[in-house]
């Protein structure tokens, strides 16, 4: 029977001549520390001589002193103990001395010991105990101090040993992990790159099949993979392989996932590092790590270097609000710019970076020759959302009636991360209800919870507040249903959710541009809640705080950014480059500022008066809708269609009625309570 070498863990092994040899144990610092500790304990616990036996002063006084068996009495001042030495001929009188000893007790002693309260009191008691004894036979106490040389030595050396031990331990720990691609944790390697390296042997289970949607972005990065796999196909015609590509898009759209797919598909070394990993408290560390990263990349070319959240070091130079108090980030950026330009034309190293704040990046970083391509990873459209649902629904146990098309229409404006959250939340809701499969209603409840929050059915709301909420939401619903360009309300509830006392779901139209008429209709619908309160109750509440904030921002954008004001004109004071972020002056005069304020106020007031007029013209339907909402607490688009009729603006609404869209409009709530659209 053959033996497995890996199972031979015995300290004995055979030498060349077949004889058994004992492998010497490996000693390191931990062995040394252990031996020191054992020696210390042994020296303190082992009995190098005979220890005196514990006794009491009464026994010493009544037996030993009275029978004149005591030879010496030694008082130890610092320990407040008394050691008693017996005469040699008297040892046999005390058999307890032989109980704990294999041999006869030491003749030298001490033989007994006992504690005392104070030295003066003991001296008086000793004199009284020897009153009847002649002065010649009396025992005079000796006084001494116990010296613990070993303990004093340990107390002196221990702090230094502890400091040295901690120093050795820290440096030992920091020196570990120096393998891999990154330059390890040794303190002397603090300037080394921390990038994780995924090579051909790394098990990366993500590929392009796992990236749903993002068709255009995926096509761009697929071409980058082709550059690395077949570079001669492009260079033989005189072309140059792009040096870098920047993934730009909102959070949760799949930028990092796309980079992981590139690592899984490229079959070349892949360096992954976050922008914050370059930033360190030590001066010059960031630039040193950049140099080390690119040095490793050149050695393993062809390869890909991925820097996630590059805005951590790529912020535009000279715009630091701290007025140059710390330029370590700028030094790191300067080194990055230098290294990206230092590559040979076809070195086979491609830089991928991701950010959701491309507007603040330095222009030198964005120019051709560094990041040649900007790949925009936008929020998914209807078809892409359907593909994303197909990916995230695979591991779930679903009702066969679940339709990905229906779910995709449910979630306009959702990112890939949001869709993943919807699928996970629906599974949790189904499990909470002890279901065996996930049904359609579980997905609807998950979307409602993600948007509006969890229902608070036990929240105490007075009847008057509930009525105000109902008429407020009915105002939004009425105007949104009757205006052509407003988002039609499809579901509204007055059951409290999250911090809000109610929530409404609208069907936003997915469009690329928005006209002035569309924005005015949306503003009018947003102000419908405040208008309904004033018309119905003759007073207003704090429930319209979020509505007013929204329409104010929208009106300011219309006047000062989109040029939709006749008096202000076709001008835009928005600086897309971000250079005005730290300026102390407005890009317009005080007179223009007053004109902008007046135009913003006029837009809002006109929309508010229009909202009140629409509600007055449809007062009966508005009241009926509010009463129905008070009765049911939840109403749908069918109820609005029954009261106001179909929305006939020259386009079909059949699809709209089937959808519960994911945008909300908040209802009135308590004072000082924050609101979110």
From TrEMBL:
Gene3D superfamilies listed in its UniProt record: 1.10.8.60, 3.40.1690.20, P-loop containing nucleotide triphosphate hydrolases (3.40.50.300), Peptidase M41 (1.20.58.760)
Q: What is its EC number?
A: 3.4.24.-
Coiled-coil residues: none
User: What positions does UniProt annotate as the active site of this protein?
Assistant: 473
Protein's membrane topology? Multi-pass membrane protein
Function in brief: Acts as a processive, ATP-dependent zinc metallopeptidase for both cytoplasmic and membrane proteins. Plays a role in the quality control of integral membrane proteins.
Q: Known NCBIfam families for this protein?
A: FtsH_fam (TIGR01241)
The name on file for this protein is ATP-dependent zinc metalloprotease FtsH
Source organism of the structure: Marinifilum caeruleilacunae
């Amino acid at each position: 029977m053959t033996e497995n070498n890996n199972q031979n863990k015995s300290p004995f092994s055979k030498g060349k001549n077949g004889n058994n040899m004992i492998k010497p144990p490996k000693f390191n610092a931990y062995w040394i520390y252990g031996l020191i500790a054992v020696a210390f304990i042994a020296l303190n616990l082992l009995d190098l001589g005979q220890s005196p036996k514990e006794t009491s002063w009464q026994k010493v006084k009544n037996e030993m002193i009275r029978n004149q068996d005591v030879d010496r009495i030694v008082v130890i001042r610092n320990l407040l103990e008394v050691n008693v030495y017996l005469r040699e001929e008297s040892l046999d009188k005390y058999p307890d001395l032989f109980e704990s000893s294999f041999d006869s007790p030491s003749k030298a002693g001490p033989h007994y010991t006992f504690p005392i309260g104070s030295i003066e009191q003991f001296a008086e008691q000793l004199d009284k105990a020897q009153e009847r004894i002649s002065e010649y036979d009396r025992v005079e106490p000796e006084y001494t101090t116990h010296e613990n040389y070993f303990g004093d030595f340990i107390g002196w050396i221990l702090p230094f040993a502890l400091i040295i031990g901690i120093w050795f331990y820290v440096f030992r720990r920091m020196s570990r992990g120096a393998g891999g691609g990154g330059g390890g944790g040794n303190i002397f390697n603090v300037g080394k790159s921390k990038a994780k390296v995924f090579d051909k042997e790394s098990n990366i289970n993500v590929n392009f099949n796992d990236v749903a949607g993002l068709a255009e972005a995926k096509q761009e990065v697929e071409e980058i993979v082709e550059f690395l796999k077949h570079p001669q196909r492009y260079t033989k015609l005189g072309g140059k392989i792009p040096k870098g590509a920047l993934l730009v898009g909102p959070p949760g759209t799949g930028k990092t996932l796309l980079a992981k797919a590139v690592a899984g598909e490229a079959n070349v070394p892949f360096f992954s590092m976050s922008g914050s990993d370059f930033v360190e408290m030590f001066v010059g560390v960031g630039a040193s790590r950049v140099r080390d990263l690119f040095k490793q990349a050149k050695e393993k070319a062809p390869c890909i270097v991925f820097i996630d959240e590059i805005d951590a070091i790529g912020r535009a130079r000279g715009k630091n609000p701290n007025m140059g108090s710390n330029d370590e980030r700028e030094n790191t950026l300067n080194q990055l710019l230098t290294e990206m330009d230092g590559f040979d034309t076809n070195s086979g190293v491609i830089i991928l970076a991701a950010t959701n704040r491309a507007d603040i990046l330095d222009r030198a970083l964005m120019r051709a020759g560094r990041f040649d391509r900007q790949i925009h990873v936008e929020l998914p459209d209807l078809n892409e959302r359907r593909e994303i649902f197909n990916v995230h629904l695979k591991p779930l146990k679903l009702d066969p009636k679940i339709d990905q098309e229906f779910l995709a229409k449910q979630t306009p404006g959702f990112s890939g991360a949001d869709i993943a959250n919807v699928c996970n939340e629906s599974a949790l809701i189904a499990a909470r209800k002890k279901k065996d499969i996930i049904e359609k209603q579980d997905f609807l409840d998950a979307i409602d919870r993600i948007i509006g929050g969890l229902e608070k059915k036990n929240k105490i709301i007075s009847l008057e507040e509930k009525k105000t909420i109902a008429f407020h939401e009915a105002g939004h619903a009425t105007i949104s249903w009757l205006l052509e360009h407003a988002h039609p309300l499809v579901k509204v509830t007055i059951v409290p959710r999250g911090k809000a006392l109610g929530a409404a779901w609208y069907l936003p139209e997915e469009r690329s541009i928005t006209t002035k008429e569309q924005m005015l209709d949306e503003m009018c619908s947003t102000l419908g809640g405040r208008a309904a309160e004033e018309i119905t109750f003759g007073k207003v509440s704090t429930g319209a705080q979020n509505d007013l904030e929204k329409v104010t921002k929208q009106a300011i954008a219309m006047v000062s950014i989109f040029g939709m004001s006749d008096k202000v004109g076709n001008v835009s004071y928005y600086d897309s480059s971000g250079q005005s972020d730290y300026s102390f002056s407005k890009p317009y005069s005080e007179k223009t500022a007053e004109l902008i304020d007046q135009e913003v106020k006029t837009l809002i007031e006109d929309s508010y008066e229009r909202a009140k007029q629409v509600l007055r013209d449809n007062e009966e339907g508005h009241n009926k809708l509010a009463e129905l909402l008070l009765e049911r607490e939840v109403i749908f688009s069918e109820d609005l269609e029954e009261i106001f009729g179909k929305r006939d603006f020259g386009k079909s609404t059949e699809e709209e009625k089937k959808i519960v869209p994911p945008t909300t409009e908040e209802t009135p709530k308590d004072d000082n309570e924050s609101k979110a659209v």
